[in-house]
Design brief:
CATH class of the domain at 129-265: Mainly Alpha
Distance between the termini: 219 Å
CATH superfamily of the domain at 129-265: Tetratricopeptide repeat domain
CATH topology of the domain at 129-265: Serine Threonine Protein Phosphatase 5, Tetratricopeptide repeat
CATH architecture of the domain at 129-265: Alpha Horseshoe
Structural class: mainly alpha
Number of strands: 0
Radius of gyration: 67 Å
Mean pLDDT: 80
Shape: rod-shaped
Largest sheet: none
Number of helices: 8
Length: 266
Amino acid sequence: MKRGIIVAALALALSGCVATQNDVLDLENQTASLRVQLQDLQQTISSMQANQADLSTQMGQLHDTLSAFTDAINSYQTDMNRLSSKMDDLNAAISSRVESIGTQLTQAQAQAMAQAKADLAKQAQAVLNSPTELFNQADIRLSLQDYGLAVAGFSEYVQKFPQGALIDAATYKLGQAYYGEGKWEDAGRQFALVLEKYPKSTLIAQSRLMYALSLLRIGGRLDEAKKYLESIPNDFPGTPEARRAQLELRELARHHKKVRHSKKAR
């Protein structure tokens, strides 16, 4: 019984020793691990301190760079202010110059416009006073049966431009205007002038016809009128003037026949 108790006690003691030894081993292992961690921590701290030193150096360099950059910005701003001031002065000078040029241009343009208007007025007056325009205006009046103004226009042409290119036509149309007014003698005088002064005119046939008609309206010169009427179909056959002359001759023949019958009846 006692022996069993002793054996049990020894076993318990041995068990306790083993447990303590294990604890010591565990403790030693933990201590070693802590030592390793401490070394790592020391290395990390050393690295951080080194990095901090580098960072401080870098921060110093950055501060210097920022200071230099700030100085450059300030210098640049000063230059920009000077440039802006010069630009303002330049703009003011340009504006003044442009305004001056604008005033000069306005005056020049006004003078040019006035001169152009004067030139146009002269040209218009020259056109109005030209032989052709004078003739055309009178011809328009004649076509409108405004015989008084037609007479005035063609008379002015004949007086001012006796050597004009349209002198024969102006003389003939002046006779037409007088004829329209019923001034047979004045009309006949103009048609006779065409026949006398412009024998190569293209208006000879018309002038012979109108001269003969004027004589018939005047009266007392029947034989001369018939002579001119008879010459038109002979010299200008197939023309409207020839047909009109033949009609007038037939009318004269009928009239003469009636007169003869009337005389016989008496």
